[in-house]
Every structure is written in C-alpha cells, then in structure tokens.
Specification:
heterotrimer; A mainly alpha (about 325); B alpha+beta (about 575); C mainly alpha (about 350); B: about 575 residues; alpha+beta; Dipeptide-binding Protein, domain 3; five-stranded antiparallel sheet; 17 helices; C: about 350 residues; mainly alpha; MetI-like fold; two-stranded antiparallel sheet; 16 helices; about 0% strand
C-alpha cells in the first residue's frame, strides 16, 4: 500500500520540521523571558563572581544562536556533561541537562511521562464512557426534560475550571465522606489497584470537562444517522427502536468520536497542567510549570517538544482512524 | 538572610506548632488533647511518619542546601558541627553542639574558631567521620556545580573569595586546618562572634571524598544522622528515609528519631495538604507538613471545630514583611514623604490581607519580635492600628505635596501573601485616604527579584520581606543596612543604600562579641536607631498555624525555625 | 473543551451553497425558542458588563473599597453575618479577607472576563480566516508554509507559551489587553485548519469555477464567493471559542499570570475562592454560577445559529419525518473534515 507508506513518510518529515520549529520558538521566547538564570541557579545570595562562574559552566553567556547549535548537537550527536567528579555522556537524542538540578532532561521526562499518560489515558476512558453514554441517552430521549437536564449537567462540567471541580470533589469525596483516599500517585507496576483508586478523582475531574463535547458529538452523529433513508426504511419494516439506535445510529457516531478522541489525548498530555498541580501528581505539566518559573530552558524545551510530539502523533492517528472508519476519506 | 521566595521554596519557613501549648492549656485534660487516639502521651519508637509537603526536597546535597539551622528533613541525614537546640519556643533559638564537643572555642578576637569532634562518630556504612571530611564538605560547597548555599563561608573565611571548589582547585582552602582526625580550625578574615550559628548549616556536614559523585551526590548522600536515604525519586519529590543502624543516641542528644521510617511526599497543593491532615485518613493520621501552614480559609473552618483546633499549633520564625524605599528616587528622597507613608499605612487591613490576626502580627520594628534577635519594641511613627491619614496629609503638605501625590508601588505577582498583589491592593486602598494615589506595578516573580535587587533598576517604593538565617540580629540587619554590603553588579539587598559610618562601625563592634546575649541587646538598639530614619516601613511578622495528623505526638516547634521539628515527632 | 471537537463540529456546517442572508438567518433563528432565550441571556450579560458602573452606583458600592468591619480578622477574615454578609448594603455579600463588595466585583469581573474572551475570539477568528483562506487560495508553496505554521501553533502547549509570553511583556502594558492578545494569538490554529479545509472544498464547486472562468481575480472570488460560505462554520466555531477563552483566562489566573488585582475577573475570583468552599461557599458559587450561565447560553446560542445557517435544515424540516430538524445538528457536528488539514474527501478531491 504505497499510498499509506507515502503518507507515513510525509508525516514523519512534517513532524520533524514542526518539532524543530517549535524548539526554535521556545528558545527565542524563553531567551527573552526575564530572570537571571545564573542567579536563580546559583542562589539569591550568590556573589557576582559566583554567578559568573555558574553562567560560564552553563554557557549562558553564549549568543542565542550558539546555544541553539549546542542544543541541536546534543539532539543529533549527544553531549558530555561534567558532574564535577566525573564526565557523563548523554547519548543522542540528548535534550541536555537541567540548569537547576543538573539531571538529564530525558531522565526527568521519562520519570514524569508515566504519570501524565496514566492520567490522560484513564481520563479518556471515563470521558468516552460518560460522553458517549450521555450522548446516546440524549439522542434517544431528544427534546424531553431528561435530555435537557443531561445537557445542562455535562455543560456544567465544561463550564467549571478543573481546579474548582477537583478541589470540591476532593473535599467532599475524600475529606467529608471518606470514600476514596486523597490522590497520591502510585506506580501502576507497583500496585495496579491502588493506582486506579488514587487516580479516580483526577480522571473524573478531567473527564467531566471533556464529556460534554463527546456527548454533543455523539448525539448529533446519531441524529444524522437516524434521519437517513435506510434507517427510515428499517423503521418502516418494524425494526425495534433500541436495535436501530444501537446497531446503526451508534455505529454512525463511531468515526467522529474516534477522530476527536485521538486528537484530544495528544493535547491533554500538556493540558493536564491544572489537574496535576491541584492533585499533586508528579507529571509533565506540573514539572513544566515549575521549569517555566525558574527559566530552566533545557527542561522547558525538552518537555514542550515531547508534548508537541504527542499532539502531532495524535493528529496523524486521528487521520488514519478517520480514514479507516470512513471510506470516503483519503489520506493525502 | 534569605529572601522571601527562597524561604518559601527551600526552607520550611512555615511552622507548626504546639498543639500542647495552644490546645491543652485552654481546655480539657492535658494528656488527651492533641495527643492522638491512644491517650498515652509518651512517645515510643517505631512506625512510619509521613511528611506532606508542597515544595520537593530538591538539591538534597549538603553543599547546595540553603537552610536555617540545618533544615528539617536534611537534618535527619546530615549532622553538622553545631545545631539548633531542639526545644520549644525561645529555648529552641539557642545553638548547641552536634558533631563537635562544644559550640566552638574562639581565639584571636573571634577570628579563629576551633572544634573537636566527638568520639565514635560514623557514617551509615560504619566508616569513621573525620575532620578532613568536614573540611571537604565545606570546600565542595564552593564549586560552581554545587552552588546554592548561604554566602557567609565565602565572605568570612580567609582567602576564600575566589576559591572554586576542590574539583578545579586541588590545593583546597588554606583557611581550614585539620591538625588531626578530630580537630578542625577555621581562620576568619574578621571577628565573627556568631560563627557557631553558621556551623549549623548543612555545608558543615561531613562528606567522604571517596563517595563524592559531584552533582549526582544528591541521589544518595552519605548519612551521618539517624536516617539514611532509601529512595530519592524525581529530584526530591518522593524521599524515603529509614533508620541508620550506625547512628547512636550516645553521640546525639538532639535528635530523638522515634519513627522507623520517614516518607516525604511533595509537590502537593497546599490546600490539599491541610485537607488531608484534617481528615487524617489512613497513613495521613501519622502525617505532618514542614512547609505548609493553614491558610485563612482553612483557619476559618478549623476555629469552629474543637477537635481540629486542638491539633493546630502556632509557630514563629524571624521574618518581617515591609515596604522598602529607594531614597535615590524622587519623591522618596524626601524623609517627610517616607514618614507620611509610614503614617498612612493601615496595618490592620494589611494583616487581613495576609490572612488575619491569627496569621500575622502588625510590625513596627524591623527586627522580628523575638528575644534572641534583641527585639526592642519601638514605633517611630505611631499611627495606630489602622493608620493616621490626617497626620500623613500634614507631612505631605510640609513636603510640598498639598494636593496629594501619585506614586508607583512595585510588587511581585507571586501567590505568597507577602510581596503579592493582595498586600499591595490593601496598601493602595489605605494610602488613598491620605491623598496618595498608588499605581500598582506587579512583576512576575523572577522579574520582580531582578528588578528590586539590582541597583540599576531598583524602584523607589516596593514590597519586600526578610527572614533569618539564624535567630540573631546580625544576619537580619547587616545585609539590609550595612553600607559595605551594597552590591553594585549583583544581587543587592541594601535597598535604601544606607552607608553610614556609625552604623557600619556598630555592626563591626557587635560582630566581635562572643557573648550572644550582650550582642542581642545591641542589635535591638541599632534597629531602633535605624528605624527613626523611615528607610523601611515594617508591616507585619507572619505567624504560622500548622495542623498535624491525629496520631502525631511530641510536637516541638522552636522559634529558630518556627517549624515542627521532624526529629522530635513520634507516631506511636 | 477540545479544539479538535470544534474542528470536526464546525467544519461540517459545510454549506455547499452560498450562505443565507441576514434576514433569513434571523427568521430561522426565531423558530428556535431555546436559542432565543440564550440570545437574550447573552445580551443581558453583555449589558450587565457594560452597565457595571451604573449598577454598582445603584447598589452604592464599588469593587475596590475595603470594609474591614465586615470580616472577622481572627478567623482568617471570613465575612461577618449569615450567607457571607448578604444584606441591603451588599446584595451578594462581601469578599473574605478584604470585605470588598461581591456584587460589584462580579459585575466588574464580567467586563474583564467577557471582554477578554470576546476580543480574543475576534483575534482568533480574524487570524484564522486570513491564514486559512490564504493557504487554500495561495500557491502550493504558500499553502505548505502556512499549513506548517498552523501545525506548529497547534502543536505548542497553549498554557506554557502563555506563561512565557505574559512574563516577557513589561508590566506597564495594560494587563487585560495583554491577556487578550496572548490568548488570541496563541490559539488560532484550529480555526485556520477549518477555514482552509472549507475553502478548499468550496473552491472546486461549479459556481466558483464559473466565476474563475469569467475572469474574476482571486481576491474577488474570495470576497464574493468564498467568505459568505465560511460564515456558518466560523460563527459556529466562534460561539464555542468564547467559553473556551473564558476558561483559559481563569486557568491563567490560577497559574498566577492572569489579569492583575485590583481589577476583578471571574477567573481570578474562582482562583481565590476555591479554598473558601467550606468557610464561605457563596464566594465560590457566585463566579462559578456566572461562568456556567455564560457557557450554557453561548453553547445553546451557538447550536441555534448553526442550525439556522445550515440551509439543508430547512428542507429537512419540510421533507423529514415530521420531527424537528433532526439532521441539522448532526450534519454540523460530524462534519467532513477530521482534525487535520491533510485529509480531504475523495468526492471533494474529484470535484
């Protein structure tokens, strides 16, 4: 299938170009942000000489272009770093080391990624269940009071910022009713059951925000199908309403929901900043906000690149899934 | 002194406190209140203590930590030559021996300090601790790779100003001598009677040269204290400590080390920490926090609940929030304008903005209101609790601003209720009554620090805060008012650019004193003398309200840190 | 809310005939009761925001004056009196810690929140339409360049770039304007994608080809034939963007880089109020309720406009099953374009 191979190749090239452009923009933007990086790294009471030594060690005095060139070198060839007592090699693709802690950026990211992925994937399952479920119900009960109430509830989720929903849920569910533990990340590999219980509230908070969009999408896709001629024919032949809804209408909603979902997962990895901050989940978003605050450029660039990669990847997956689900679409 | 942000970030400034003093004295049988479910208040060894923190324990390397008195979690792993007295309240503001047999023997007018190590000290692997390891620990704190600590060693040790640490400079620091394995001698470039205070900081912890891994050392620093590091995940976000079998109570009369395991979890939202402690579910019943205090909203809830209120303690840490002036900027060059602002300030509304009367005490002195600092009460511009706008208008008229004045107040956008927008808007509202229109200039945190700490960009009128590196007037007054500490090309804290011979001389004279009580009295007198010049307007001293889990006992909070001391806590 | 959804949703409005005229749109909208109510609520909200000084004058309060006597300093500054100090003087009570009037802060907050959200939406729409149309009508090279730029914009995490950009600009720059510009300029990616896809599909249609054959210039075609066709998806999408922008504004406040005090905004109120949920519930419920009403009415209105703009809805109504416009929303939502601009439909490609 040469068409698909060509699609993949074009996408791969496009992805690399996009990510490089993203890295240039991040470099330029953060180069311009205020904050004396050497002073922040060194500590507030460092003398000017000490600050200078730190700046020299981190090559902060180099012009922007030279620093970016070093970044590219690290990415494609790797880099060496001194720990003081020894020299450590950071193999390509090397995203550099943190100004603040001296840890390799890739290690930091790999330590945080499981948390962010756990959060987003679990939330995705919930928002699909909640969203599609609500959507089906409201398509079925269209125009009745129950449908309007459902719409209002899901919209209330969308309208309320995650930090409000999350905190109120925590106070009520964990504090007052004591139904769940206060969320604290547990590795899936350590204890899958605790992992799930601890993440349930964060998942719910994120899912409530996204559910409304899926509900509306499902509902309208189903209505579209229900109005098509063949469905009317089925009806005329006396096929039961439930069978029509499940076998035909729901199938019609499949393609757009899949496409939208793949897309959302990508952006949610970076977008879960607020949930991670509130629930104290040590994910990418939380770390990124901190890195921005202390102008830790290598960490910021590395993490933004990873998030961008997921967004681009998810977009590609969405296109493929969409094409698979809807034969009329070609991949170009 | 640390700046506010550092305090918030690196040092546990907030404090928990004594449940016992606050709760039990007021109501009920002394033994049951606040002591947890058992009813038996005697602390026992064993169990796991959970620490719920907002800031991760980053840079877990004794060279990089900036602590007051050795820190809280760090002090469980790093022993130092001297340490803070682990006692409640004012008694906790004293310095006591730790690895050394005494707090130091001064000679030659307090320019030479000699320490002898106790016998039988070992690391977690059983190897002996030597004076050379302490010297090496100090030397590596000079390496640019391991920057972050306090500036005093570099400023005080002879010939240390340009030293770049043992990785670049193999010769080492000649200012530190180790004539034998148990003796260490420090040569200072000027008299410093407060050297024993400095020796409490983690840079004075021993580091075995053979185990040094540079920037990687923080992953598993070698313990000299009662606990060793089992896990340090994601740069201090989850730190698990277990008992160090080679530590012995016989050589350490300060750390109690009751729990077998200490589990430090951080990166948590501060309101979530308080919710968890209040619910005290599961492991949270044996939990404390060392960096989060009750906010105003939580306080409003807790005060209505007797059980919770009994679990709240109060702590004090030497800290002052104030308005700083730069008298080289008009119209703040005119003392009358500065005095007018001092009169117009409504401290009650500022205190409310900082969290109310339970979380902040109005301040009229620059020194914190504690004896160890040499606190001498005074109020050069007595305006009452909510300000005296009439007097302010009068002074403004004398200064030539009959029709009022428009000024810009610079503040940070940090959410710290210290130099933050809440305080700035409260001042804006108060100064309006005195005919002073305040425009607010809110800067992002880094921008704010760069701007106010550079002599080139320093604004005329801004919010600032200052905290204690140790409970004494020296590190509180000198960086702010010593003319020789004005830094032209780096971070400057002498915002008012005061360079007065009599002030400088008095600072030198007090530094010579090794009698700390006598020194404290003179710091207090100096504070009062400077206060009359209206170079700063003290606003408030923060108070820390800390909640602990329901099974936590033996809560000790000293005035040195204002924080619940984890080395004293028991969970059984 | 996800950008992708809107892409999918809005693009589908894909009317393949020139859009309805303003008058017809109005008539169609009138047929929907819910949309009318929603329109009225939105109008009311805008009116309240505009009339904030007047309303607070009637109440006799302003949003910045402190009332220390109305709060209990020893208890963290919780308002004195029942229901957060609600009374004749303070219609909705006062703010904890300061005693500032909540009604005044809420109505002034509407100015900032709605103002920022609406203005940012306008920026997003303008930039998105210009980039999208230019990409669709320009040469292959222009299309590639603009599409790549759009990809980059979509790929970058919005919140992080906003954090950085808001820190760069000097503090003297008016904050609400800055927040508007940042939100507007960072989040136009999806609308550009929709517009490009829509324009590409319209471009191949007979009446456009006819126009081209009769010698019209590209910009003439764009203005007379293509832009009207874009109205439906763009308006639909804009209605969805407004609530999204409101929540971005509140998220920025939560992260500490939003609109600055003493200027009130809903996002800022929510940020400060969430911890007061137990001690002073109305402090949280007021801005949360206001935000909910706004998002709900904008969504319903958006639905209504979309239905009214889709010309097929009317015919469906006539020839359909007798139930009300079942397909209109559906067509709008399922759309003909997936999340990416690289997907085109066969029938369009062959058209």
């Amino acid at each position: 299938m040469s068409g698909f191979g060509g699609f993949l190749l074009r996408r791969a090239v496009g992805t690399v170009i996009t990510l490089l452009a993203v890295s240039v923009i991040v470099y330029v933007v953060f180069y311009a942000t205020p904050g004396n990086v050497a002073q922040i790294t060194c500590g507030p009471r460092c003398s000017p000489e000490q600050v200078h030594q730190v700046a020299e060690r981190l090559r902060l005095d180099d012009p922007l272009s030279v620093r970016y060139w070093h970044f590219l070198q690290g990415l494609f060839v790797g880099q060496d770093f001194s720990t003081g007592t020894s020299v450590e090699h950071c193999a390509a693709p090397c995203l550099g080391e943190s100004y603040q802690t001296g840890r390799q950026v890739l290690d930091i990211i790999l330590g945080k990624l499981p948390v962010s992925l756990s959060l987003v994937v679990g939330a995705m399952v919930l928002w699909l269940l909640l969203g599609v479920g609500t959507g089906v119900l409201s398509a079925w009960r269209r125009g009745r009071i129950s449908e309007r109430a459902l719409t209002a509830v899901t919209l209330a989720g969308t309208a309320t910022p995650v930090f409000v929903i999350g905190l109120v849920l925590m106070i009520v569910v964990c504090g007052e009713l004591q139904l769940l533990p206060f969320p604290q990340y547990v590795n899936f590999t350590d204890d899958p059951e605790q992992w799930a219980w601890n993440l349930l509230l964060p998942w719910l908070s994120l899912a409530l925000i996204e559910a409304a969009t899926f509900a509306r999408l499902t509902r309208s896709a189903m209505l579209e199908t229900l109005a098509e001629d063949h469905v009317r024919t089925f009806r005329a032949y006396g096929v039961g309403e439930r069978a029509i809804v499940v076998r035909h209408a729901l199938r019609g909603a499949f393609a757009p929901v899949i496409a939208l979902n793949a897309n959302n997962v990508g952006s949610a990895i970076g977008g879960a900043v607020l949930a991670e901050t509130l629930f104290g989940l040590p994910g990418i978003g939380q770390e990124l906000v901190h890195a921005v605050a202390v102008v830790d450029l290598p960490v910021v660039v590395g993490m933004v690149l990873v998030i961008s990669f997921f967004v681009v990847l998810a977009n590609a997956v969405a296109d493929v899934l969409y094409a698979v689900a809807d034969r009329r679409v070609v991949l170009a | 002194m640390r700046q506010p942000s550092v305090i918030a970030r690196r040092v546990a400034a907030a404090s928990v406190s004594l449940v016992v003093a606050a709760g039990a004295a007021a109501c009920g049988p002394k033994d049951n209140d606040a002591k947890g479910s058992g009813g038996d208040s005697t602390p026992h060894k064993g169990g796991t203590l959970t620490v719920l923190n907002s800031q991760p324990q980053t840079d877990f390397d004794p060279a990089r930590l900036y602590t007051s008195g050795g820190g809280n979690v760090p002090s469980l792993v790093f022993r130092t030559l001297t340490t803070r007295n682990r006692a409640d309240g004012a008694a906790g503001a004293k310095v006591v021996p730790d690895l050394a047999t005494d707090t130091g023997r001064p000679s030659k007018n307090a320019t030479v300090w000699t320490y002898t190590l106790k016998k039988g000290l070992t690391y977690e692997d059983g190897t002996p601790i030597t004076s050379a390891d302490i010297k090496y620990g100090i030397e590596r704190s000079f390496a640019p790779e391991l920057s972050g600590g306090a500036p005093y060693l570099r400023d005080w040790l002879t010939g240390a100003a340009d030293y770049q640490g043992p990785y670049k400079d193999k010769k080492g620091l000649s200012a530190i001598e180790t004539p034998d394995d148990r003796t260490i001698v420090f040569h200072l470039n000027k008299p410093e009677g407060e050297f024993p205070f400095l020796a409490t900081q983690t840079q004075f912890a021993p580091v075995p040269r053979s185990k040094d891994t540079g920037t990687k050392y923080e992953e598993h620093p070698v313990s000299s204290g009662p606990y060793e590091v089992v896990k340090n995940e994601n740069d201090g976000e989850h730190v698990l400590l277990k008992r160090n079998p080679h530590w012995s109570e016989a050589t350490d009369d300060q750390r109690k080390a009751y729990p077998d395991t200490i589990d430090v979890r951080s990166g948590l939202d501060s309101s979530v920490i308080d919710q968890r402690l209040s619910a005290s579910q599961g492991a949270d019943a044996a939990a404390v926090t060392t960096d989060t205090n009750l906010g105003p909203a939580e306080l409003a809830k807790v005060t209505g609940d007797k059980d919770l209120a009994a679990r709240v303690g109060t702590g004090h840490f030497g800290y002052t929030n104030y308005i700083a002036f730069n008298p080289t900027v008009k119209p703040f060059d005119n003392p009358k304008v500065r005095e007018a602002i001092a009169y117009a300030v409504d401290r009650s509304s500022v205190v409310n903005a900082a969290g109310g009367s339970a979380l902040a005490e109005p301040a009229t002195t620059f020194l914190p209101n504690q004896k160890s600092f040499g606190y001498t009460p005074y109020d050069p511009f007595p305006a009452g609790p909510s300000g005296n706008p009439a007097k302010a208008r009068e002074l403004l008229a004398q200064a030539g601003y009959k029709n009022g004045l428009t000024v810009t107040l610079t503040h940070s956008n940090a959410k710290d209720f210290a130099t933050s927008p809440e305080i700035a808007t409260a001042l804006q509202d108060a100064l309006k009554k005195a005919g002073i229109t305040v425009r607010l200039q809110g800067l992002e945190d880094n921008d704010y620090r760069d701007t106010v700490h550079s002599v080139k960009t320093e604004p005329g009128f801004f919010l600032a805060g200052w905290g204690a590196d140790w409970p004494s007037g020296g590190p509180f007054l000198a960086p702010i008012f010593d003319g020789r500490q004005i830094v032209k090309d780096g971070a400057n804290f002498n915002a008012s650019r005061l360079d007065d011979k009599s002030v400088n001389n008095e600072i030198d004279a007090i530094n010579k004193l090794t009698d700390l009580d006598a020194a404290a009295k003179r710091w207090g007198a100096l504070d009062k003398k400077i206060g009359g010049r209206a170079l700063v307007v003290p606003l408030f001293h923060p108070v820390y309200k800390r909640l602990v889990g329901k099974d936590v006992r033996n809560v000790v909070i000293s005035d040195w840190t204002g924080v619940l001391d984890i080395s004293q806590v028991a969970v059984k | 809310m996800s950008e992708a959804l809107v892409t999918v949703e809005a693009a589908g409005t894909g009317s393949t005939v020139p859009a309805a005229s303003g008058a017809r749109l109005f008539w169609r909208l009138r047929a929907q009761r819910a949309a009318l109510v929603a329109a009225a609520v939105v109008a009311l909200l805008v009116l309240i925001a505009l009339a904030a000084p007047l309303l607070t004058a009637v109440e006799g309060q302003d949003p910045t004056t402190y009332h220390p006597s109305l709060i209990d300093s020893a208890r963290g500054g919780v308002p004195v009196g029942s229901f957060g100090g609600i009374g004749a003087d303070h219609w909705l009570g006062v703010e904890p810690q300061t005693g500032r009037d909540l009604f005044a802060r809420l109505v002034y907050g509407a100015r900032v929140s709605l103002g920022v959200a609406l203005a940012a939406t306008v920026i997003q729409v303008v930039v998105g339409v210009v980039v999208g149309v230019a990409a669709a009508l320009g040469s292959q090279w222009v299309d590639q360049l603009l599409s790549r730029i759009t990809d980059v914009i979509v790929a970058m995490p919005l919140m992080i770039m906003s954090l950085a950009l808001l820190a760069i600009v000097p503090a003297s720059f008016p904050r609400p304007v800055l927040v508007t510009l940042v939100i507007g300029l960072v989040a136009w990616g999806s609308i550009a994608k929709i517009v490009r896809a829509q324009t590409l599909s319209t471009k191949g249609l007979d009446y456009v080809s006819a126009a081209r054959l009769s010698g019209w210039r590209t910009w003439q075609i764009a203005r007379r034939e293509l832009l009207p066709g874009l109205a439906a998806p763009v308006i639909t999408y804009a209605a969805l963007l407004v609530p999204m922008n409101i929540s971005v504004e509140s998220a920025l406040s939560f992260l500490g880089v939003g609109v600055k005090p003493p200027t009130p905004s809903w996002g800022q109120m929510l940020t400060a109020a969430d911890v007061w949920y137990q001690a002073a519930p109305q402090y949280l419920l007021l801005p949360a309720g206001a935000l909910f009403v706004t998002v709900l009415s904008l969504t319903v209105l958006g639905d209504g406009v979309r239905t009214a703009l889709d010309p097929r809805a009317a015919s469906r109504l006539r020839v359909g099953t007798g139930r009300k416009d079942p397909a209109a929303n559906a067509r709008a939502d399922v759309g003909q374009t997936a999340g990416s601009a690289d997907v085109t439909k066969k029938k369009e490609a062959s058209a």
